[in-house]
């Protein structure tokens, strides 16, 4: 292990002896202790630096952890021996004073991360004595003074046995014990008694406890291996899962290495090598994380990922950044850990009976309930799980590798670990012949379009490795991460989750959230193209070319193989190529501008495409991650759908819009039936048609009460707050006199409180007021805390709009969030377009999001003497796409090329010089604010 390069043990011992020899008390004085501490601190730091250098040199994480553990052994042994020889002064202790220092936990396995705690067990023959207490105390205080976090316990052998019987944590800890210092006989006694009195005959109990513990941990840290910021230690597919396998195999098989498991036939040679490879990789990542942070950090966060990717030697390839290649490797390793778990669990179901009669009876009872599956002799049902009837079922008929998933789906079965183990070991049979097999493709399509739970069976197919081999293009995006803050999962996980959403919509589970999508799916005559399109819509991610265009090419190649006809193939290809168009149009365009609807209808062309595109869009957005979908996006998409549908069916769009507007007004009138008729009619006349068509009835009613209360109070300015924990969005409603800089001032009020705007809706009323609805990202978990924070935002807005506070002063105190600029570089882009609207110039701005950005952008637009008629604010994680429909101050489009270029330069400067903007660029002076607010 090259320990001589890490620390000179003999020199350390000699130096310690010299300190004791020079001390008048023989080494027990405070002065001597100080010298010992300084010597050991230096030895520890030098040793750790040497270990760190070796990690960079050879890249072996497992060796790094072992070296750190060995270094820690040397230090603890040195302290212990010094205390025995020079502090306590009784080298020849009596039998009752004997003590053994055991490493337990991860340290007991002989592996230690740079920032890990040191877990020690002081093992005694009987009870604590003054002799053992002095040694333990000296050792612990020395370690604490050296800066280590030490977990420790002092127990007799009998106490260890007694506590292990009732406490699984202590039992696991003692299972991993390893002697570091002290007498050897005590550890041997514990080992013998632990094996005979605790382990013997309790495998079933221990395994059940460890697997339950694992499941609870997964639920806490995210029950998927594919979170983009995974917990390397505790997350699914992380080191703790490997630890669990180690505990289980060591406990049940009485082994201590992968070689022993190969010899017993539990793992193949390849699988044992996989175990070692995964362990080494995860340890390398964890050790680098701790060295970078200078402490124990277990979440592989975005800021750590690029640096670790560089340290591990990953390079950028066309279509994939270095960090994305690193994280893909990470997720593939996490998947391998899951495969090993299933393989070992399968072996346990067969082997457990040898040591546990009760478990043998259980297995016998389960197998007695096994039943045949009509039409096949290759599979049978074992305790509601599909299993193979023999080891050659896939070899004799490779189509069975797809058929097993079809049978499980149609019979609503889970998968026996033995079946998954054999599938994994038969992947070489998934070759070109199987991919072109008509029956295999038909069976796969049945799995994909299963009416009960297609996601479950596709997920099992993916985890087993079959999906990526049967569809090689899918294999390329397995475990592929997109390095941004928008996507919460890997690409393959996202695709499977989108199919799950579709299945739930089809079953009617999400009718309240998606009434239109649910209604459309019920009327679908051909479901297959939609499911295939969802499976393929992001399948070309990670390539140099546009993934939508490349995905359409893949669809045209793959769909005929799956059995789709020419019409269905072209439909799928179109859906894949245009899968983003509805979302982008709904969120980034003015749906009240007729040209938006006409352009969208020309692209869609048929009602069938529109119907399928709406469903695909809903599933795609919802599968991105928690909190990405919200009711506001749903309303925008429904509005776009209903405005486009008449154009595609030969109806009259304008008449249909007017009819829906009248119907919406009638619904609000019914909701306000308790109001006096005259007041109700006057209120409804305040709003323009677009308000009724884009705002849900519940919100309309809330706005009505808000405006009524404002009028009764005689206010010219009012704000209101609504919090929503489910969507993680807090809504601020502002009613104020309309003026060109209103949105800029509102955005500035949000920025001054450090609030990040996620979206905005702007409505003007017929009496010269503006109703602005601002949605900010939630900051606090509790509703009351979040409500108080939102009220602070409202106070800032009111101070600006009433003239009590000047924009430059308020923005100077704002909290910026530009630290991610280097982490997620987004090149700013500004487009000035006159073709998207007949009445307005459309300015589309794309760049890195930050707190206060919208205030700066809208302030800059006001400086350019432009009037914002409509704003559409959309964030995609770290990236923002803001779209402004503007005119000049006389209501005309911006037709001058030189002026358009000036607009582009000015708005690009907002991104490139944020500090200048923060100092008041584009902000409104105090006198102007007062004058406009009173207008």
UniProtKB/TrEMBL annotation:
Sequence segments annotated as region (Uridylyltransferase): 1-374
Ranges of residues in domain HD: 491-607
Record text on activity regulation: Uridylyltransferase (UTase) activity is inhibited by glutamine, while glutamine activates uridylyl-removing (UR) activity.
Reaction(s) the record says it catalyses: [protein-PII]-L-tyrosine + UTP = [protein-PII]-uridylyl-L-tyrosine + diphosphate; [protein-PII]-uridylyl-L-tyrosine + H2O = [protein-PII]-L-tyrosine + UMP + H(+)
Residue ranges annotated for the ACT domain, each copy included: 731-813, 842-921
Record keywords, A-Z: Hydrolase, Magnesium, Multifunctional enzyme, Nucleotidyltransferase, Repeat, Transferase
Keyword Repeat: yes
Entry text on domains: Has four distinct domains: an N-terminal nucleotidyltransferase (NT) domain responsible for UTase activity, a central HD domain that encodes UR activity, and two C-terminal ACT domains that seem to have a role in glutamine sensing.
Job of this protein: Modifies, by uridylylation and deuridylylation, the PII regulatory proteins (GlnB and homologs), in response to the nitrogen status of the cell that GlnD senses through the glutamine level. Under low glutamine levels, catalyzes the conversion of the PII proteins and UTP to PII-UMP and PPi, while under higher glutamine levels, GlnD hydrolyzes PII-UMP to PII and UMP (deuridylylation). Thus, controls uridylylation state and activity of the PII proteins, and plays an important role in the regulation of nitrogen metabolism.
Family: Belongs to the GlnD family.
NCBIfam families: PRK05092.1, UTase_glnD
Protein name: Bifunctional uridylyltransferase/uridylyl-removing enzyme
Organism: Consotaella salsifontis
UniProt gene name: glnD
């Amino acid at each position: 292990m090259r320990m001589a390069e890490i620390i000179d043990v003999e020199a350390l011992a000699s130096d310690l002896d010299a300190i004791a020899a020079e001390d008048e008390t023989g080494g027990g004085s405070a002065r001597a202790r100080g010298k010992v501490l300084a010597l050991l601190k230096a030895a520890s730091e030098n040793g750790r630096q040497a270990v760190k250098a070796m990690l960079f040199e050879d890249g072996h994480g497992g060796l790094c952890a072992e070296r750190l553990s060995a270094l820690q052994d040397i230090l603890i042994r040195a302290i212990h021996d010094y205390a025995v020889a020079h502090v306590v002064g009784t080298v020849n202790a009596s039998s009752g004073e004997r003590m053994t220092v055991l490493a337990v936990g991860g340290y007991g396995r002989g592996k230690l991360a740079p920032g890990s705690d040191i877990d020690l067990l002081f093992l005694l023959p009987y009870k604590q004595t003054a002799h053992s207490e002095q040694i333990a105390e000296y050792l612990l205080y020395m370690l604490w003074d050296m800066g280590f976090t030490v977990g420790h316990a002092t127990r007799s052998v009998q106490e260890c046995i007694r506590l292990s019987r009732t406490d699984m944590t202590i039992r696991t800890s003692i299972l991993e014990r390893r002697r570091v210092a002290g007498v050897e006989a005590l550890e041997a006694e514990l080992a013998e008694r632990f094996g005979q009195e605790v382990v013997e005959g309790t495998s079933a109990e221990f395994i059940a406890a460890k697997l339950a513990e694992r499941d609870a941990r997964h639920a806490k840290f995210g029950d998927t291996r594919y979170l983009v910021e995974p917990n390397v230690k505790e997350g699914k597919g992380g080191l703790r899962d490997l630890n669990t396998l180690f505990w289980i195999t060591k406990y049940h098989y009485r082994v201590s290495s992968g070689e022993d498991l190969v010899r017993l036939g539990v793992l193949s040679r390849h699988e044992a090598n996989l175990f070692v490879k995964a362990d080494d990789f995860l340890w390398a990542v964890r050790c680098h994380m701790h060295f970078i942070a200078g402490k124990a950090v277990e979440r592989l966060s975005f800021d750590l990922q690029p640096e670790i990717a560089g340290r591990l030697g990953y390079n950028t390839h066309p279509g994939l950044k270095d960090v994305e290649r690193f994280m893909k490797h990470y997720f593939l390793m996490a998947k391998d850990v899951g495969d090993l778990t299933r393989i070992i669990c399968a072996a346990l179901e067969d082997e457990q009976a040898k040591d546990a009669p009760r478990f043998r009876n259980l297995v016998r009872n389960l197998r007695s309930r096994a039943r045949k599956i009509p039409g096949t002799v290759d599979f049978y049902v074992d305790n509601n799980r599909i299993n193979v009837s023999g080891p050659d079922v896939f070899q004799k008929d490779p189509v069975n590798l797809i058929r097993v998933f079809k049978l499980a789906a149609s019979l609503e079965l889970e998968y026996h670990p033995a079946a998954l183990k054999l599938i994994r070991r038969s992947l070489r049979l998934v070759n070109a012949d199987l991919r072109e097999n008509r029956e295999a493709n038909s069976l796969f399509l049945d799995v994909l379009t299963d009416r009960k739970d297609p996601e479950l069976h596709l997920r099992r197919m993916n985890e087993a490795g079959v999906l990526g081999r049967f569809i090689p293009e899918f294999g390329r995006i397995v475990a592929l991460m997109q390095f941004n803050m928008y996507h919460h999962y890997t690409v393959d996980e996202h695709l499977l989750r989108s199919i799950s959403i579709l299945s739930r919509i089809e079953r009617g589970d999400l009718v309240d959230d998606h009434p239109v999508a649910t209604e459309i799916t019920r009327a679908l005559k051909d479901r297959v193209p939609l499911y295939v399109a969802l499976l393929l819509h992001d399948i070309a991610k990670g390539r140099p070319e546009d993934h939508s265009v490349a995905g359409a090419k893949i669809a045209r190649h793959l769909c005929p193989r799956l059995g789709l006809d020419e019409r269905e193939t072209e439909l799928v290809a179109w859906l894949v190529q245009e899968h983003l168009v509805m979302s982008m149009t709904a969120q980034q365009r003015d749906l009240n501008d007729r040209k938006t609807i006409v352009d969208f209808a020309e692209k869609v062309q048929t009602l069938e495409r529109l119907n399928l595109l709406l469903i695909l869009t809903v599933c795609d957005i919802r599968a991105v991650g928690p909190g990405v979908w919200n009711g506001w996006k749903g309303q925008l998409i429904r509005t776009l759908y209903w405005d486009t549908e008449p154009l595609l069916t030969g109806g009259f769009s304008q008449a249909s819009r007017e009819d829906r507007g009248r119907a919406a007004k009638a619904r609000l009138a019914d909701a306000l039936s308790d109001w006096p008729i005259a007041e109700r009619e006057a209120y409804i006349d305040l709003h323009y048609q677009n308000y009724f068509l884009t705002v849900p009835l519940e919100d309309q009613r809330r706005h009505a009460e808000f405006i009524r209360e404002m009028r009764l109070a005689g206010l010219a300015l009012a704000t209101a707050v609504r919090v929503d924990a489910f969507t993680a969005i807090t809504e601020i409603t502002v009613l104020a006199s309309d003026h060109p800089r209103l949105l800029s001032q509102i955005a500035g009020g949000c920025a001054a409180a450090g609030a990040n705007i996620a979206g905005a809706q702007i409505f003007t009323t017929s009496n010269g007021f503006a109703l602005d609805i601002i949605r900010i990202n939630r900051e606090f978990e509790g509703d009351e805390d979040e409500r108080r924070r939102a009220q602070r935002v409202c106070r800032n807005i009111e101070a600006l709009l009433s003239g009590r506070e000047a924009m430059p002063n308020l923005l100077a105190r704002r909290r910026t969030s530009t630290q991610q600029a280097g982490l997620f570089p987004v090149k700013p882009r500004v487009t000035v377009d006159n073709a998207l609207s007949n009445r307005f110039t459309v300015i589309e701005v794309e760049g890195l999001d930050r707190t206060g950005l919208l205030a700066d952008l809208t302030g800059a637009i006001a400086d350019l003497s432009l009037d914002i008629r409509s704003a559409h604010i959309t964030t995609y994680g770290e990236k923002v796409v803001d779209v402004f429909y503007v005119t000049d101050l006389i209501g005309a489009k911006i037709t001058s090329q030189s002026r358009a270029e000036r607009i582009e330069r000015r708005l690009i400067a907002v991104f490139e010089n944020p500090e200048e903007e923060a100092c008041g660029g584009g902000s409104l002076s105090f006198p102007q604010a007062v004058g406009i607010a009173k207008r």
